[in-house]
Design goal:
The structure holds 2 protein chains of 2 kinds. By secondary structure, chain A is mainly alpha-helical. The two termini of chain A are 32 Å apart. The relative contact order of chain A is 0.14. Chain A has 15 helices and 2 strands. In chain A, strand 1 and strand 2 form a beta hairpin. Helix content of chain A is 68%, strand content 2%. Chain A is globular, with a radius of gyration of 21 Å. Chain B folds into 2 domains: 54-239, Alpha-Beta Complex (Penicillin-binding protein 2a (Domain 2)); 243-278 and 307-587, 3-Layer(aba) Sandwich (Beta-lactamase). Helix content of chain B is 38%, strand content 20%. In chain B, strands 2, 3, 4, 5, 10, 18 and 19 form a 7-stranded mixed beta sheet that branches. A 5-stranded antiparallel beta sheet of chain B has the order 12-11-23-22-21, with helices on both faces. Chain B has a 3-stranded antiparallel beta sheet with strand order 1-8-9. Classes of the chains: A mainly alpha, B alpha+beta.
Chain lengths: 320, 615
């Protein structure tokens, strides 16, 4: 396998450092959220996931990304097959079919669908020879992503399906989307959103959105997590209550403190200062001015940036 | 080259995306600033309210002692088994387990849960649990964290039924009390006095509850204590009661329905107060079961009523003391005034009978009192007239509460023309005055009012205010000043001579105490008319109530007393012996077994007890 030495020499150390610091903070926060009982030992699992992420990073950095983009179509077909498989034959877990179980390992193909769609889009747009893109040009790529999104939505997993949209828009924008097209897409999105609200969304899904906007509608039920997390974050104040000292987290007022609401634990215990530090680190990942350094293969700049900027931060967001 | 152009365009677009991200981050930062820094205090309060729960520590109520420092009301440690429903995921299972462990019906637990007040408040499943129950629950702490043992001070009344009415009882504050001003500021669920001294001096006895601020987790389980303000125990209160006398009274009454009250005639201190039938305040202290409450509250004999202050009876012949005081003071008779008693008096077209059908013959005041001659007092009443009778009866405390420091005192009733006009819009008939003269015809008095009349004669004409508090936390309580009624000494002497004769040779002989000169007056309050009584002589409910009012020793009285035995027949038969027994115990004199006929053949008396220091 050909390894480009220049890659190693030009590693963006600031980026790497930011990622690792974020990972470390993640582990420490999970430890604080779980040490009193719920989800005990989750921080160890998290470390395993990080190591896996590092491995993936190394592989993808050493690998010639062009090989991957070349195989993007194959990967796409595979992922569509996997999504179809879970829809038809996948096990039913809490009323949804999202998981593939391979012995002790379990994963959701929809997670990989995000990566594959990014790869495929990169390939399509990189190979397109146009200066700018109109609605017609992005219709094809749009359909490929929409297929994935629809399959995921059918599981049902509306949240993940929706996540397919922003990367697509970003890539399309970078690919040179014309202002007119941007306006057209925005209009279409509003139209689809409105129609979807009226005809596609079920009542419980609407309710979930209502309580998200106003948690006091159901303070003991659906709004509980949000209210309690708001209290946790707000009560952290400027400097926080101290590590492992957050009353909301430690006394169990936040049920999902070790998973979806882990950031509330950080905000409560580390305060506003801790929050800015973490937000700053996240900002560092895509926005550090690393401009046009010598040695980067220029033809596929889009791809390389895309890959570099998104992948590691994805890795740190792996959850059990 | 096309690629470079492409790159430039791309750089621009990338920058746009980067700025969008910076913008989003800035938005987040502003949001967090608002949430954490600007509104931090607000949320910190919310978090504290989540975390900290105030748990009151009930203050032990003040102890109550008698005048000699004997304990009348105590606090003893007890344990409640409580259930905190927030701490169980399966309430049905918890209730089932608890009912098995404590041997109580699951329905009873459910009933208590349904009355549950504020959230997070534990429900008492079993009050005053046994040691075994406590051990059982404690051993299952981990298995059943929702059940726990709560130590509480429990009120205990060593005298039990023997002083229930005067001391009162405690219980959880009622809905009505919550709304009343006397209990303002006391929260639901708190134990307060429900009768007697416990209720009247509730505020004084309550002390100040302490507070524990505990840290609880999201399930309401206490994980730590943040702060503790210890409770302040209520001050100990010394009453004017004499425990020995109280017990003597209980023994002398021997369970007969009725009541008795003893005063210090000089200052109005209540020495003993008994009402029968009674109840056990200890049962109330631990929270009385609904069934037991129903039984005691619906009993036709009304054991919850304090007959001494709430029982209103015709005073019967004991009213002749009031008549004598009024007549002598008004000068309508002198002790030497004589009337003839042929056994009846025909007046106003009616025949008024004496209790002695063949008549008492001609007698003076002393003998009229001693033998309780009705005809003599019919004549006195006619001479006095209703206005003067009612005037003096009111001055002597009739038709008004005595002001004793006990709740819900009755006023009694002294009828007169004014009152009759108001109530029935009819005019007063002179014949009514005749009935009133012997304490019938609508006059009503409480035993405490009658004891007070005895005290007036005993102390030289002063109306005392009966009271129970002698000292609070060792500091003597102010004594309400007696009111001088302005009786001439000769008036008092005339009454006293009659009362002495009652016990020495008259209707009250059975109240004699060897070596102690007792002055008294019997009374029989008719419950039905004579005619009706003749028809149904054996029926207990038809029997008149027996009265005896007295004071002793006659020359320097230290005790004034009223005894009332419901349906006890004539006062001389029922109430006088009880009074004699109580007085004998009070003066420490052994009582001969056969008081009957004693006066005529004086047997060698035991040495009188050495004069007792005024308690």
């Amino acid at each position: 396998m050909p390894v480009d030495r220049r890659l190693l020499m030009n590693i963006d150390w600031v980026l790497v450092a930011a990622c690792f610091i974020l990972c470390a903070i993640g582990v420490a926060t999970i430890l604080s959220a779980t040490h009193t009982g719920r989800g005990l030992g989750l921080e160890i699992k998290q470390i395993y996931w990080i190591l896996l992420g590092v491995l993936a990073l190394l592989v993808s950095v050493t690998l010639d990304y062009r090989r991957l983009t070349d195989r993007a179509l194959v990967l796409y077909v595979l992922i569509v097959a996997a999504l179809l498989y879970v829809l038809v034959l996948g096990p039913r877990i809490q009323g949804t079919r999202r998981w593939i179980l391979l012995g002790p390992v379990q994963f959701q193909p929809s997670e990989f669908a995000k990566l594959v769609s990014a790869l495929l889009l990169a390939k399509i747009f990189a190979e397109s020879k146009r200066d700018s893109l109109g609605v017609r040009e992005i219709l094809g790529p749009g359909m490929t992503v929409a297929l994935l999104a629809l399959l995921i939505a059918a599981e049902p997993d509306l949240g993940t399906a929706f996540c397919m949209l922003p990367p697509f828009l970003a890539v399309a924008f970078l690919g040179g989307l014309r202002p007119k097209a941007i306006a057209a897409i925005a209009g279409a999105l509003i139209l689809v959103g409105g129609l979807g609200w009226h005809f596609a969304l079920k009542d419980y899904q609407k309710n979930r959105i209502y309580t998200f906007l106003d948690p006091s509608l159901d303070p003991k039920g659906a709004g509980y997590q949000k209210i309690q997390s708001q209290i946790a974050v707000g009560s952290g104040g400027l400097s926080g209550k101290g590590y492992k000292n957050g009353s909301q987290s430690q006394l169990g007022y936040l049920p999902a403190r070790h998973t979806d609401f882990v950031f509330s634990v950080l905000a409560e215990e580390m305060g506003f200062l801790g929050v800015i530090a973490v937000l700053g680190l996240y900002l560092l990942v895509p926005s550090w001015p690393r401009g046009s350094r010598p040695g980067w293969p220029s033809r596929s700049c889009t791809m390389s940036r895309w890959w570099r900027d998104w992948c590691p931060s994805r890795g740190s967001r792996f959850r059990s | 080259m096309r690629i470079y152009e492409d790159l430039r365009g791309l750089q621009g677009r990338l920058a746009v995306i980067q700025w969008v991200m910076v913008g989003l981050m800035a938005l987040l930062t502003v949001n967090f600033w608002q949430l954490q820094v600007l509104r931090g205090k607000y949320y910190r309060n919310l978090a504290e309210n989540n975390r900290i729960r105030p748990v009151p520590i009930p203050a032990p109520r003040g102890l109550i002692f008698d005048r000699n420092g004997r304990v009348l009301v105590d606090n003893r440690p007890s344990f409640n088994v409580v259930l905190t429903t927030e701490q169980t995921d399966d309430l049905d299972w918890s209730i089932k387990r608890l009912s098995e462990l404590l041997q109580i019906e699951p329905a009873a637990i459910r009933e208590k849960l349904s009355q549950k007040g504020p959230q997070f408040k534990a429900v008492v499943v079993k009050p005053d649990a046994s040691e075994q129950d406590v051990a059982t629950i404690e051993a299952r702490r981990l298995e059943q964290p929702e059940a726990s043992v709560d130590p509480v001070p429990l009120r205990s009344y060593p005298l039990g039924e023997g002083a229930a009415h005067v001391l009162g009882r405690v219980g959880e504050i009622t809905e009505r009390q919550l709304e009343s001003e006397a209990y303002a500021g006391i929260e639901a669920g708190v134990t307060v006095g429900q009768a007697g001294v416990e209720a009247e001096h509730n505020r004084l006895l309550m002390g100040k509850d302490g507070l524990r601020r505990v840290v609880v987790n999201s399930r309401g389980v206490e994980v730590a204590e943040a702060e503790r303000q210890p409770p302040v125990e209520g001050p100990s209160v010394s009453l004017t009661l004499d425990m020995k006398l109280q017990q003597a009274m209980e023994e002398a009454m021997a369970g007969k329905p009725g009541s008795a009250v003893a005063l210090d005639p000089n200052n109005g201190e209540i020495l003993a107060m008994l009402s029968l039938p009674s109840y056990d305040p200890n049962e109330f202290a631990k929270g009385i079961e609904p069934a037991a409450w129903n039984e005691v509250s619906k009993d036709p004999l009304t054991p919850l009523m304090n007959r001494v202050i709430q029982g209103q009876y015709s005073p019967g012949s004991s009213f002749k003391i009031i008549m004598t005081l009024a007549a002598l003071q008004e000068g309508v008779i002198t002790p030497q005034t004589k009337f003839h008693c042929p056994g009846y008096l025909n007046i106003y077209g009616t025949t008024f009978r004496c209790h002695k059908a063949e008549g008492h013959g001609t007698l003076d005041l002393k003998h009229a009192i001693a033998l309780s001659c009705n005809v003599y007092f019919y004549n006195v009443g006619v001479k006095l007239g209703i206005e003067r009778i009612s005037h003096w009866a009111r001055r002597l405390g009739f038709s008004a509460p005595t002001g004793v420091d006990l709740p819900a005192e009755a006023s009694g009733l002294m009828p007169d023309p004014d009152w009759k006009r108001k109530v029935s819009k009819e005019k007063w008939y002179p014949s009514e005055t005749v009935s009133i003269s012997i304490g019938q015809g609508g006059v009503l008095a409480t035993p405490l009012q009658m004891a007070r009349v005895a005290a007036v004669v005993a102390n030289g004409g002063r109306l005392v205010e009966p009271h129970l508090i002698k000292a609070v936390a060792g500091v003597p309580a102010p004594v309400p000043a007696p009111v001088d009624l302005g009786f001439h000494p000769s008036v008092l002497q005339g009454v006293k001579d009659g009362m002495l004769a009652v016990v020495a040779e008259g209707t009250g002989r059975r109240a004699q105490v060897p070596g102690i000169v007792v002055a008294g007056k019997t009374g029989s309050a008719q419950v039905v008319t004579h005619a009706r009584l003749e028809q149904d002589k054996k029926s207990h409910a038809m029997q008149p109530h027996g009265w005896f009012i007295c004071f002793a020793p006659a020359d320097k009285p230290t005790i004034a007393m009223a005894v009332m035995v419901e349906h006890g027949t004539a006062g001389g038969q029922s109430a006088a012996p009880v009074a004699g027994q109580i007085l004998a115990r009070y003066f420490g004199v052994p009582l001969p077994n056969a008081p009957e006929g004693a006066p005529e053949q004086p047997t060698p008396l035991p040495q009188p007890a050495p004069p007792r220091a005024a308690p």
